[in-house]
Amino acid sequence: MTENQPPGSLLTRAVAGKDRRAVFARYGDRPSYSFRERALRYTLRSLAYLTILITTLIIVILLVDSVRFFQMASLLEFFTGTRWEPFGSPKHLGILPLLSGSLMVSLGSLLVCVPFGFGSAIFLTMYASRRTQAVVSPIVEILGGIPTVVYGYFAITAVSPWLANFFPQIDIFNALSASIVVGISILPTVSSLSSDAIRAVPKSIQSAGYAIGMSKFHVVVKVTLPAAISGIVASFILAFARAIGETMAVSLAAGSTPNMNWNYLSSIQTMTAFIVQISMVDTPAGSLEYYTIYAVGLTLFAITFAFNFAAYRFVKRFREVYR
Predict the structure, then answer these.
(1) What is the model's pLDDT at position 179?
(2) Three-state SS for 306?
């Protein structure tokens, strides 16, 4: 090879001359069709199709059993009714109290996880030293690995008694303590996704800000965060979607009293908490009470899917692509 010859010229000439054995001597004439390559490709393809199949089956089951529910109950009452009393007689099957409770906990948890999660992301990516990052980042991630049932018991035994010092009228089971522990549990979601979005901003853009005399604060606020805004907002939306689907923490901490008073100091019930409640009692299969699980589950699935789709569209619409 001459000094000015491109590094890949010999390989290009060998391939052009159809000397494939010389080029692919290690893997054979057709390396992409080797047994290991095909086995890996077919395995990954099967896993992908299996994921799609499982998701499709879940949706089909929810739809079929929800249709059976609406054959017994009024569709209009389900989406507009303000009372949720599936047991006893007469039955009231308005899902708005459950939806109200889920929104209360989700919005309340955002007030906890967004400031702390977003703030920790900015600190760890822009201000903390490498040693501090190595210590603090795993601690933040551990919060997401704690079982949510532990958060529920923590809310009952520690958070609610502590809140009673400031709000004597607070119930043992209340929406405020549930919002706090759910916010703590989803804090790593906001922190991790926001950190990834901030790190994706090229260093050259930040260096340009320093080059024209901007302070570090202005580089963070005026340059880095606007460039990473799509990923940051997407982390907020995904955190909200996860909070609205939280189960055990709100089942233990928020109570089982469906209402629409938006009083964070009183007991409420969320959609996920009702599913847990109905699953723990002796409900006859095929009854109206039994099919309420699927109707509420389908509603919860639709809401969660809508927020995840909104996050995807937002990222696709406002994502900054750097080359």
Answers:
(1) 93
(2) helix
Whether cis (ω within 30° of 0) applies to the bond prior to 90 is: yes
Residue 253 in tokens: 């901490």
| Token pair for 304 | 């969660």
pTM: 0.80
Render pLDDT for 75-106 as a digit per residue (tens, 0 to 9): 888 888 888 888 877 888 889 999 999 999 99
What is the rounded CA–CA span in Å between residue 82 and residue 90? 14
Angle (deg, nearest 10), helices 288-318 and 96-122: 30
Task: Output 62 or 18, whichever has higher pLDDT.
Answer: 62
84 three-class SS: strand
Q: Is 81 helix (H, G, I), strand (E, B) or coil?
A: coil
What token pair was written down for 219? Answer: 């580089």
Q: What is the pLDDT of residues 240-290, one digit of tens each?
A: 988 988 888 888 888 888 888 888 999 999 998 888 888 777 777 778 888
Instruction: Mark out the alpha helices in 146-174 (DSSP H runs).
Output: 148-154, 160-164
Measured at the CA of 226, the angle between CA 220 and CA 227, to 5 degrees, comes to 95
Query: Mean pLDDT, the chain, as a whole number?
Result: 84
How far is CA 253 from each of CA 151, 174, 267, 271, rounded to the nearest angstrom?
9, 6, 9, 14
The distance from CA 87 to its chain's CA centroid, rounded to whole angstroms, is: 32
Query: Nearest Cα to 214, choosing from 199, 228, 224?
Result: 224
- Region label for 88, one of left (φ > 0), alpha (ψ between -120 and 50) or beta (otherwise): left
Q: pLDDT class for 13, splitting at 50, 70, 90?
A: low
Q: Where are the alpha helices (DSSP H) in the chain?
A: 9-16, 20-23, 35-72, 75-80, 96-122, 130-145, 148-154, 160-164, 175-199, 203-211, 216-218, 225-227, 229-244, 248-253, 271-280, 288-318
